[in-house]
Amino acid sequence: MKALLLLDFTGKVFLQKEKILYWLLSAFFVSLFLPEMPVINNTFIIAVVLHSCFYNTFAEKGQLLRKRAEIICMLLFYGLQIVSAFLSVNRDEAMIMLVRRLPLLIFPLCIGLLYIREELKDRILLAYCFFTTVAAVVCLLFAYYQYKQSGDAGYLFSDNLTRAIGRESVYIGMVVNLALFTYVYLLQKQSFAIEYKGLVYLSIAFLLVFHFMLASHIAMITLYSGLMVFAAWHGLQKKQYVKGGILVVALLTTAFLLLKFFPRPLASFKELSHTNYVYSRPGTMLDKPNATGGWNATNTRLAVWHCGWQLAKEHLLTGVPLGDKQDKLVEVYQQRHFTYAAESRRNMHNTYLDVLCNMGIVGLCIFLLGYLVFPLAGCYKGRDGLGIFIILSFAIAMVPETWLDRSVGCIMLGFFFSLVSAWRR
Hints:
- The chain contains 19 helices and no strands.
- The chain folds into 2 domains: 56-116 and 274-425, no CATH class; 134-271, no CATH class.
- It is 70% helix and 0% strand.
- 40% of the residues are buried.
């Protein structure tokens, strides 16, 4: 606890500006888990932005900007979003989307133009892990209370598990993924920020169970694949083949126990095999998504992607202006008699396809350079394994969801990509 409160020796010798940044970011992490409180969240974002403006000189910011190609591409991408918004016929929708995506501008400008040294980086990451763990405990306790009141085990599963904080499981699954790998990172490097390893191992065990109960398919695939790769890499790099083998066996044993005691999340994967669909089929998502002949998360996405690709092919070079994109997509739904998607105004359910439809090939290339290619190249050059995992996790998560259409998605993208740049020399 001393490390979290900056009361240990290292924490006490932090510069005043570093302490202020730490506490502001800690408050920002807390605000991410507050249900339906955008004013508080925006207040802490503004506070972080203002402090970052004076954290280092503008000459230093300019020097860092010239060396961080990913930040340049992020800023260029948002600049093109502004142009696209003003070219829109539906200006009201364009302004709403532009404001929603504002974190993609302000975080690269504030956090992305700082340098956060190693000791402060570890404290920020530990605070993030701590508040994520606390939020998960609160969610589970609230879900268990609802389960006891109703007798319905569904309250302990998927989106119902995160009702206490009003977030969808796909986003909390990503948050927990990052926390788990950050815990592993801090343990592996034997960071001085960790005082009690036993508590960290207990937190990891709890978050693994909580993550499994969230049943976010893409988050589960990302986490377990990442852990297996880490175990294999750790054993090969350190030439500790026995230790690497033990890690793999431990992971497989953990997976077996989770499947035995919590079989319902695994059953949800069955819907991935139900890919057939008929556009004209009416209705909403089935109460039993694994049943054949209805809409589920898998076939809905496949149908939407086909419509989105049709729209993208018609505007490959310039794309559809930001405010008109959703209206044009609904028109494609109507052409294909996809009434269910038209009435609910389903978005693209794929961030890359969304960017392609909105900004064309050039815009997609700039997006990929700013949010994938340059960040990965920088992390690889700096041997930053945690940064690589964070970037790849988001890259995978953006396949089944349009992160740019959600405020929380834009906040997470803008913040974490900027943070990864900030801790790199």
